[in-house]
Amino acid sequence: MTDMETIEAYLNRKHAELRLLNDCLRRPLTLPYPRSVTEVINHKFQLTAALRSEHELYEWSATETAWSQEGRCSGGPFEFKYDYQRADLDVRGPSFYAIGDKAEYETIYTASGMAAISTLLFASANVIREADIFVLPGSYGETLELIAGHTRHLRLFTLPVKEATARYSRPQILLLDSCITASAFEGALRCIEPKFELLIFDTTCFAGSSGRIRRVLRWARNYSIPVVMVRSHTKLDSLGAEYGRLGSAVFVPPDKNDRSSSLSKFEKLKAETRDAVRLFGNAALPAHFPPYVGRPSYRALTNRRVAAILRNGRRSALHFASALRAEVNFAHGLYLTLDSAQPLDERTARAAASQISNDLRREGFPIRHAGSFGFDFAATEWFQHSTTKRYSVRFAVADLPTGLWDDLSRAVASWWATHGVMYGSARGQMESLR
After folding, report:
1. Contact 401, 305 (CB under 8 A)
2. pTM of this prediction?
3. Pick from 32, 51, 9: which is nearest to 399 by CA?
4. Which of 374, 382, 387, 391 is most buried, judged by most C-beta within 10 A?
5. Quick check: 233 and 248 in contact, CB under 8 A?
């Protein structure tokens, strides 16, 4: 593969990211040019902490009860207006998405990605009394747990989309999750004449400017399906710095030419969701909006970050697919999973994720045991497939120079080939003692 990024090009790009963060400070710090990946990571998190601290220092009057403020408070390009406990939080500012200036949509911000989807699903009970909700194999486990355990008006089905179009008489909702496999995602968009009343699209694993998001919106528009995009902004939207817990539900109505009863229901769903955010206390915190969103260089740098992660993910996928038992075909390309010939359980998967990270860090690689993705370092964590229930180790791809990433991928493959089977054996030994 020829799409290589040198360490020099990487450091130049990262210096631009650090400058973007530093320029958001009222009192910018002296910012040295980074000399290593470690310095990049440390400087980024230090600047992020400085931004959060400065927000608290200068926005001290933005209290939870809004007793001391007149008009709007602000955070970077965002302006906030609210009353008691942010129950009526109104946010004005740039979008995290790049879906076209002509797109018609309205955003409700929440305290996290799970807050966005849980509030939406609970609110739907007042709009759609009973419905079948279809999810594809591999959808996010906590979302499925939420639906199965707490949304009694929704009957959950896990199956390919093409099988969901003519079987059932109740209203139908499609939940399309960005963490499914590439083949399942493409299969959903090949569905002809879908009959869904609503599409819920969890975009968390796709960049805000992803072409896949625009494809889904075009597909839904072609069939006059209203869309609600739910998202955690803690992942890809904060330059890998985990600026704060933040989520959103973006309501995209059907085509203007289709002013049917479905649009009336959609407007009601939006109102019910906003009310549910108030009642559940799920409103976003102004301090958690990254102040660098909307700056001229933000979108370009974010796109280059995600492109580097996807490039590194493709390189690892090619290597792991031939050398290891691994799932490499996720639609998002942000992580892969490592499987053992002898099945793991949660305990052994946790132990393996921690040990591989610790061992390779001691060898000098930028890798951490961390339960997320999209960082400037590689991350390992235990993982359970929501459909098969098998446990594995998730290996989250990092934004690193190509040569270093290739070395790290080889080190991971070598470690797993040597040690991975030991954790499956450990599970078997524990079960034999019970």
Report:
1. no
2. 0.92
3. 9
4. 374
5. yes
Euclidean distance between CA atoms 273 and 119, whole angstroms: 6
Q: Is 261 exposed, middle or buried (0-12, 13-18, 19+ CB in 10 A)?
A: exposed
Distance of CA 359 to the CA centre of its chain: 28
Instruction: State the Cα–Cα distance between residues 156 and 243, nearest whole angstrom.
Output: 34
Residue type, 98: A
| Residue written as token pair 């960005």 | 178
**Identity at 57, one-letter amino acid code:** L
Q: 276: which strand partners?
A: none
pLDDT tens digits for 125-175?
999 989 999 999 999 999 999 999 999 999 999 876 655 555 567 899 999
Count the Cβ atoms, other than its own, within 10 Å of residue 52: 16
Domains in the chain, CATH or no CATH each: 7-60 (no CATH), 73-288 (3.40.640.10)
User: DSSP letters along 384-404, please?
Assistant: E-TTT--EEEEEE-----HHH
Q: Which two tokens stand for residue 311?
A: 């490039």
Q: Whose CA is closest to 326, among 393, 372, 377, 375? A: 393
- Would residue 290 be called left, alpha or beta, if left means φ above 0 and alpha means ψ between -120 and 50 degrees? beta
One-letter amino acid at 201 equals F
Q: Can you spell out the DSSP letters for 45-63?
A: HHHHHHHHHHHHHH-TT--
Give the three-state DSSP class for 215. helix
Cα–Cα nearest to 429, from 340, 344, 354: 344
- Alpha-carbon span 361 to 91, nearest angstrom: 41
Please answer whether residues 335 and 140 qualify as being in contact, where contact means their C-beta atoms are separated by less than 8 angstroms.
no
